[in-house]
């Protein structure tokens, strides 16, 4: 089972073409990160995966079902999308109501609603904020409310659009644990992020985008140690890789232990 993009192009209503001829297969249970400069078309591409955007050309298949034939609400049960800006997503008056909303909308039993919500709350570490109006919750934590609301729907694939934006070290640690736990459950995670250290550490597969298209698809070492890809997609190498490059060390180093070993 997989999300498949087959020669997909997308134009916004004003005619602007944001994706051109995308081809990509994401198998279930995969951890994949999408990187690339602002405006490369990353958000447009992930919105094609859950039916928020429908292709202008080509087809998107979710576990074999063409997204053109289904509503976004239907596809979202399989492919959950967490908005880049939580304020585009959150609409309930308390964090708890926001998290319980979708499981209830899915007509799950009250016991199941509570079970799923509790787990999502625990994973995202937001138990102290449940009674608050989301608008009064600090932005970084509000992003976790938005993530919890989608985790509670237990999608097979979860898309996180810039989850690291606005997060500190602690926030990133929580995100890493969420990704690990979802991986254990067999949930696929697709994340757009500009934090390349986070990408190298957490995602075995990276897709680099530039000028509306996918320009590379590979492991962290393959992407970050290929200067042509780094330049074209205008990404920064992870910090350790930058140090290794300055020191002219061999071995496509990305992590601290690799750097320490090489220096020894
Ligand atoms: N609703 C819209 N109407 C017209 N053009 C749009 C619309 N939304 C986005 N675009 C344009 O499409 C292009 C791709 O946008 P997209 O948000 O997919 O890029 P991105 O790679 O996710 O960038 P970022 O990292 O800044 O989020 C941009 O040039 C953007 O201005």
Mean pLDDT: 96
Determine the strand fraction and express it as a percent band.
15-25%
What are the secondary-structure elements, in order, as H or E?
EEEHEEHEHHHEHEHEEHHHH
Number of helices: 11
Q: Say which molecules are bound, naming each kind only once.
A: adenosine-5'-triphosphate
**Main sheet specs:** 6 strands, mixed
How much is the radius of gyration in Å? 19 Å
Taking strands numbered 1, 2, ... along the chain, how are they ordered across the largest sheet? 6-7-8-3-9-10
Distance between the termini: 45 Å
In the CATH scheme, the class of the largest domain would be Alpha Beta
The helix fraction, in percent, is 25-40%
Question: What oligomeric assembly is this protein in?
Answer: single chain
CATH topology of the largest domain: Rossmann fold
Number of domains: 2
Category from helices, strands and their pairing = alpha/beta
Membrane topology: Peripheral membrane protein
Domain ABC transporter: 3-236
Keywords: ATP-binding, Cell membrane, Membrane, Nucleotide-binding, Translocase, Transport
GO molecular function: ATP binding; ATP hydrolysis activity; ATPase-coupled transmembrane transporter activity
């Amino acid at each position: 089972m997989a999300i498949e993009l087959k020669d997909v192009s997308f134009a916004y209503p004003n005619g602007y073409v944001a994706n051109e001829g995308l081809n990509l297969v994401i198998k279930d249970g995969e951890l994949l990160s999408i990187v690339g400069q602002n405006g490369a078309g990353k958000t447009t591409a992930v919105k094609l995966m859950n039916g928020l955007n429908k292709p202008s050309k080509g087809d998107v298949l979710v576990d074999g079902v063409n997204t053109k034939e289904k509503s976004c609400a239907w596809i979202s049960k399989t492919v959950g999308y967490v908005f880049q800006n939580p304020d585009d997503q959150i609409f309930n008056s308390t964090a708890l109501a926001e998290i319980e909303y979708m499981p209830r909308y899915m007509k799950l039993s009250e016991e199941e609603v509570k079970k799923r919500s509790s787990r999502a709350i625990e994973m995202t570490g937001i138990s102290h904020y449940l009674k608050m109006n989301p608008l009064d919750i600090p932005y970084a934590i509000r992003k976790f409310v938005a993530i919890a609301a989608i985790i509670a729907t237990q999608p097979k694939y979860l898309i996180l659009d810039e989850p690291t934006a606005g997060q500190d070290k602690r926030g990133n640690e929580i995100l890493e644990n969420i990704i690990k736990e979802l991986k254990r459950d067999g949930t696929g995670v697709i994340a757009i992020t500009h934090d390349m250290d986070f990408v190298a550490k957490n995602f075995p597969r990276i897709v680099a985008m530039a000028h509306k298209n996918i320009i590379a698809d590979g492991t962290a070492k393959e992407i970050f140690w290929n200067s042509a890809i780094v330049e074209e997609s205008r990404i920064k190498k992870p910090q350790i890789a930058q140090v290794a490059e300055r020191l002219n060390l061999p071995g496509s180093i990305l992590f601290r232990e690799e750097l320490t070993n090489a220096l020894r």
